[in-house]
DNA sequence: CTTGACTTTCTTACAGCATAAGATGACACT
DNA sequence: AGTGTCATCTTATGCTGTAAGAAAGTCAAG
């Protein structure tokens, strides 16, 4: 589509049927992720991905049963890369804090994939390892198993949700929802909102995340049995 | 609610150009929401929506500039309906609790729309009123304005994220991620996860939401200045 | 060295999608 | 009666995912 795309595309070298391009599912996923990062979700079509790899679109169906599976693979990919390695023993509070912070950072490296992430469960070996380890820490600390699981799930939802909200991926993005807009909506009806918008108060994403994360973990602590 | 929503499609009565069908943006949105509730996001096409309303697809472009705007309208619709009316003075804790609980319930009435909701900001009059009121409560309680805004945003993200995760809208849904699956993945590698899965521990969505909400609000309280 | 199965790729084709452009008729004013 | 504006339909275009099958390479067995 763009100049950049033409630059990146492999020289297609007019291959006939039978001539192998030598690909793997992993390469397909990598290329797809790159494409999504560059052109957004809408930029990922079987045709464009094929072009990226110097291959016809239908060839991809040999590595992936259909496009939905490709998207699932993308999410899996992102999660695996974003899941931090937990280095041994720490108290559960700092472990969860580290986990959440690293996960957020990792997810924000591929913002366009996030809308897919919330509705698709990603159970990769990496995440399972992580969850198991964290469950160990939490149960040791006195949380019942079910509650510990709830905590981890909530934390994951929390991080993914925040990351998704931060990366406002509005496809047809042409919004103008600033202070002026709010003020125009109804003059004196929203004094606090207008003040906040003009101040720029409460707009720092990282700060909001840090604050809310602290609050959540503090709340978990407060609700700990014993 | 409307005729279309009840599933009774209008008889298309072969209308010529110029013959009015007498519609409104609101009717279009209502029909679209009904269609999405019934057939899912993929079931909503301009053609199907037109058929639902007894009208050609292109006619819809008179009420909506393009499909993306239609989707935005859908989100707006759902949020407006889901935003609870806040009845006057209460302490901020219970106000936020009520707000979050009602919002979750409202959102879950249209699960298929939720994947759209996280990435699309919905600033409707109803939500603005609500936010302004809650901001009032929070600043009165001693929270700085920026922090109060952060709290509300985080709470919204929290609720939307939870609701979206609850309504697992995997389009090509054919997962089997139960205890057996986890066990099969790696025999004794995930003892806690397997135990949780077989127990069914930590699987109640409503309970998880209630618990995490309590934790978050408790954390907010703990981080309150003064 | 030939044969035949299997794998990977390409080719062609189709139905469905959003939507651009413009024709058509009906109503509200003048 | 004439004119303009609005709501609708008609037609057409270039996308999309993917089904079906042909072609060419690789490889194992006879």
Overview features:
homodimer; 226 residues; mainly alpha; Arc Repressor Mutant, subunit A; Tetracycline Repressor, domain 2; 62% helix; disordered N terminus; DNA-binding
Description:
The structure is a homodimer of 226-residue chains. Chain A has eleven helices and no strands. Chain A has 226 residues and is mainly α. Chain A has two domains: 3-64, Arc Repressor Mutant, subunit A (Orthogonal Bundle); 82-222, Tetracycline Repressor, domain 2 (Orthogonal Bundle), CATH 1.10.357.10. In chain A, helix 2 crosses helix 3 (46-53) and helix 4 (67-82) packs across helix 5. The first copy, chain A, is flat, with a radius of gyration of 22 Å. At the A-B interface, helix 6, helix 7, helix 8, helix 10 and helix 11 of A face helix 6, helix 7, helix 9 and helix 10 of B. The structure holds a DNA duplex (30 and 30 nucleotides).
